[in-house]
Write a structure and sequence with these properties.
Number of strands: 10
Largest sheet: 6 strands, antiparallel
Oligomer: single chain
Radius of gyration: 18 Å
CATH architecture of the domain at 8-77: Roll
Amino acid sequence: MKIKKGDSVIVIAGKDKGKKGKVLLTLPKTEQVVIEGINVATKHLKNRRVRSQGQIIEKSMPLHVSNVALAIDGKGVRVGYTVEQDGDKSKKVRVARPSGKKI
């Protein structure tokens, strides 16, 4: 996956299109990401003990990674990789596709 935890992203499809947020969690097996304050669902919790009260909790639900783009300078950009050679070592670096800047 080209989106990592801690990246700031913009939603490009779905009910929250155009909103920006920070990636809290990545789920590589299902190719999904959880973004802070985006795709919020309300969950009703039953009371746990006899005389306690139930709750309504708002929870950020996962989005598919194809519906988000990395936000650089307020715009969504595609992410690619380049391999840099440093002597005997090679290093894989993320770059923004349109400009070629390192991320």
